[in-house]
Design goal:
Elements lengths: L7 H10 L2 H8 L5 H16 L5 H19 L3 H8 L7 E13 L8 H9 L6 E5 L4 E6 L2 H9 L7 E12 L9 H21 L6 E5 L2 E7 H15 L2
Antiparallel strand pairs: 1-3, 1-4, 2-3, 4-6, 5-6
Length: 238
Amino acid sequence: MFTASVSVPLAVREILSSNNLYLQALLSGIANYTALAQKIKPDVEKLTASNVNIGTIVVAIKRLVDSLQKDEGRESKSSVKNIVPIIEGVRMSLTGSMIDIDFNESRFGHLSDIFDELFEKEISHNYNVFQTDKQIRLLAEDIKEIRNIVASGSKKFDGSIKDGLSKITITIPRIANESDNNNSNNKYYSFISSVSDIIYNSRIKVQDAFFTPREIVLVLNDNDAVKAYELLRPTITK
């Protein structure tokens, strides 16, 4: 533990080193030093046992980032540009109050009634259906009407419902004026891979993830979804 005589640079290093989200934002070049300094100022003053000027904290943050970049051999802002390909028109949305319904694989044949009812009632609320050889997942807004439909069919399947979730949807448009299909595909694959790396490196827990060449859907707990959205949005939506 630091004592009351700790310097501002050491206090800043201690605080930021214990928060991986702050470090990732700094190394990715998307953090505002002044805003971050204001946020950690109370903790810095607690460790130093003194009043500290915002400018002093900003300088300490800058020096810490320079040191980390030198140690890891990378530059913050240019690194983001190299890692995440710029694709014009990428859209990103955050939808809260979602439920994730996991249907038992042995009852796939009975699920048509549930989906038929969703279509027949023309429910306009947001939902996604994901199917593999082993499972079907229904990701839908947590509203009474959808819960009633699922409950009415619960006797026909052995499934589970998880709530308290949010969904991040990243829509990737076609690359305009791209004559080389190989280059175009490589750019898409690199973009999708970069989004995965950002989430992984931030240590944000993802409940489920679904990827297609034109869309990424991330399912997270409500609090984690907000953190992921704030981290991804300034990086991938140019």
